[in-house]
Amino acid sequence: MAGTKLTPRQRMINMMYLVLTALLALNVSKEIINAFVTVNDSLEVTNKNTSGKLDKAYRDFDFAMKNDPTKTKPFYDKAKIARKESDSLFNYIEGLKEHLVRKVDKIDQGEVTPALIDVEDKENYDVPTFEMCGDANDGVGALATELKTKIDVFKTNVVKGLDPADQKRFKERFDELLTTSDPDPKSRIAVKDNKKTWEMANFYHNPVVACVALMTKMQADVKNAESEIVNYLFQAIDAASYKFDALQARVIAPTSYVLLGQTYKADVFLAAYSSTADPMIQVGAVDTVTKSIKGDAIKVPVEGGLGKYESKPGSEGIKKWGGLITVKNPETNEEESYPFEAEYVAARPSTVISADKMNVLYIGVDNPMSISVPGVPNEKVFPSIAGGGGVLKRDPKRGAGKFVVTVKTQGKANINVSAELDGKKTSMGSMEYRVKRVPDPVAKCAGKKGGPINKATLAAQPGIVSIMENFDFELYFRVRSFKMTIVRKGRDPIELSSKGNRFTNQMRSIVKGSPIGTKVYIEYIRASGPDGTVRALSPLNFVLN
Questions:
Q1: What is the pLDDT of residues 488-523, one digit of tens each?
Q2: Which of 194, 219, 241 is the last residue of a domain?
Q3: What is the pLDDT of residue 1?
Q4: 251 has which bridge partners?
Q5: Exposure of 394 by Cβ count < 10 A (0-12 exposed, 13-18 middle, 19+ buried)?
Q6: Which domain covers residue 479, as residue numbers?
Q7: Going by C-beta distance under 8 Å and a sequence separation of 6 or more, which residues neighbour residue 424?
Q8: Are both 35 and 131 inside the same structural domain?
Q9: Which residues, 6+ apart, have CB-to-CB distance to 75 below 8 Å?
């Protein structure tokens, strides 16, 4: 069985949706929100084109029914089931999209539903979250669960009547195309915002414009599934009788996106073939006039009718390849050749490294990191650190892909990442970080840094504290000593010292007995931190009132 090959436009749209979804998580500008409108519009055009191709396929079925109803009817009946199930799910999703848009913009009954580009509150995520995921914000029992159920029913019903082997192949294919599985509980998707269900992963806290674009993509996947079933059933009419005049060459690859250093693999075969006569498959430039390979050809080994082609790219970019499949016509015993073309994308190795708190590494604290390589399991990703006296360890308590970095010396440090690809460790890149000591804390008393203060309030304070302002880590400095100077009008200043952060009884007594207008200076404040440093903090200047 061959899956429907995505066009470059479809691949581009899918890639744009993934990129926009990733950017959306970063809370970027309205330009990204508006970009979802563009993606949605492109998907709508794709859906119309797919529907047009399906209409032609059904016309071909009608023609085949007139020519040979006995042979065609079993396949035609199954195609009608696919069409019915597809239309039902497609229309249901269309209704969900309209429902969300009307809810967001508060469209009254009888008013026309606006196009996505005209929706006023495109950024609204409260309505989609509540409508799709329910009051409990888990999606269970809400509209998203109903959608998930209908998708599962569609995947089951659309393959009914097929042979068991075909049912299994199509079901596996459609489970990939229209997945309804919950995220891996250890994955970043499941952990972030507690998105442990399919419903939450797709609709929780997503703006309506993204939800609508996602459902339009689902509609595209539904139409692609219908197209695959219908095209397969139509080809099966002739394949069942082993007539080779209607055969088409097919290429199936587990992925069309590989990293440099990985091996691209693909199966090349005819949709219907004789189990007693393997085809000859050659890769090279094809002369379309003579249907032969120009220049040198690469002969592909064949197993059970499937050509096993492998190629290891040496540079990045789109790699196009093709060739000929040659078979003997069982009626004429003459060789006939069928050209084929395919392509895949080779990309440079990439890695994702992020400091969970900020873009620097701090001395004396545990710096949490998230490190992953797209497309590679976490257990096959091996990070290391160089510089800053750094140590990098996995943090299993926070989940897969989570690490803790500790550093000792200021300067720079590099996080290097390698991954196991095809049984070998391959460098996936690195990222440089600045290593800094933690900033100084700020001294406060009664929650203030200075200024007018009621003398009873000041006298009632146990002492002074050090606060880390605008710092994301839970970090504490301990005040070790300070000096208090009390200046009263017409009298000599009084200087008192404290070993620690607490006011002495003498300090409180003098403050209580001082008149209004007395100035109190708290200076020479020393505080020690978990990094082993002792910091001199800014003084506090108060005036009693």
A1: 998 999 999 999 999 999 999 999 999 999 999 999
A2: 241
A3: 38
A4: 268
A5: middle
A6: 442-544
A7: 261
A8: yes
A9: 61, 233, 234, 236, 237
